[in-house]
Amino acid sequence: MQPRLPGEMSIVTFVVVLSTIATCGLFSDGVIEAAGREPWRFVVGTMAALLVAALQGRLMWQSARREVTPGSRIVLGMIALVCFSLPLLGPAWFSAMLAVAGVTAVTLPENWSVPLIGGGALLVAGVALAAGASGPQSVLLAVSFPVVGLSAYATVWLSLAVKELRDARAELARRAVGEERMRFARDLHDVLGHSLQAVALRAELAERLLARDPERVAGELAEIQRMARGAVQEVRDVVRGYRVTSLRTELDGATAVLRAAGISCETPSLPEALPRHVHETLGWVAREAVTNVLRHSGATHCRMTLHADAADARLEIVNDGARRSEGAGSGLAGLRERLTAVGGRLQSGLIADGTFQVLATVPLAESAGQKEMR
Fold this sequence. Notes:
Number of domains: 2
Mean pLDDT: 82
C-alpha cells in the first residue's frame, strides 16, 4: 500500500505542530531545573520559551505556505536575541540557542542561511564556553546547531514538495480533459470544414443567379440541401466515433493517464467478443470514473477489473483517497442514465474509509430498442 497524500492544510499544520513540540523540548531542561530553584528564573525562562515557540510556529507556518515576508526577518531577530540571552540563566538553557538554527534555515534564502548557520555554530560554542560549559559540551552544541537547521529545512521542503505534487496531478487532469476536447474539435474541423465551405459557396452562387436563372437556382438549392444533409451525417459519424470506441483503448488510455498522475494502476484483461454496445457503455464508464479519480480524489492506487459471464459484463473501478464529495455532480448521474437505457445498472459510493467504488453492469444481449436505434 502506498501512503495517501494528505491535504495542504493538514501538512502545514503537522509541520508547525511537530516543530513547535521540538522547540519546546529544547527549553525543557532549563524550565525543569528553574522550577526547583529560584522562582524568577522559572517565570522568565518559561515566558521566553513560550514566546520563542509562538514566534517559531508563525515562521514555520509562513515558510510552509511560501508566505515569508521582510517582517519575518524581524521576528527571526527577536528569536535569536531571546535564545542567545537565555544561557545567562544557567547551563541548562544552552540548548535553547539551537532553536535559532531551525528558523534561520526556513526563513532566509540559502545564500544567507548557510553562512549564518555556520557562523551561528561557532557563536553557540563561544557563548557556551563563556558561560562555563566544558569543551566537549561546546563542541556538541556547535555540531547540533547545523543539524537542527538541516532538519527544519528538510521538513519544510518535503511539505512544499508534496504540495507541488498535488498541483501537478491536478494540472495533468486538466490537460487530459483539454487535450480530449481539442482532439474532438480537430475532428469536427477536419470533417466539416470542407462541407460547410462548399455550402457557403453554393449559397452565394444561388444568390447571384436568383434574378437571371431561377431554374439553376433551384438546382443549386437542391445541391445545398444534399450537402447539408451530408454534413449532418458527418457530424453524427464523428459523434458516434467519439462515443463508440474500443473499450481496450479507453482502459489503456485511462491507465496511462493515472500512471502519469502518480497513481498506480494496472490495465485489466479484456474478455473476447464483447458486443458493440458493451464497448460503448463501459468505455464511457471508464472515462468518467477515471476523470472523477483525477479531479475529486487524492488517490495513490486505482484498481480496474472487468469480468463477463453468460449474461452480463461488469466493470469495477476502485480507488483510495476518496473524499466525501466524490461522485457528486452530473457525471455519474449521466452514466446511470446510459446504463439504464441499455438495461444495465450502476453502483457507486464509499465502500470503506477513503475507498470509492464504481461498479457498472451491462447485459451482453442487446435490447430490441437498441437494435431499432442502430
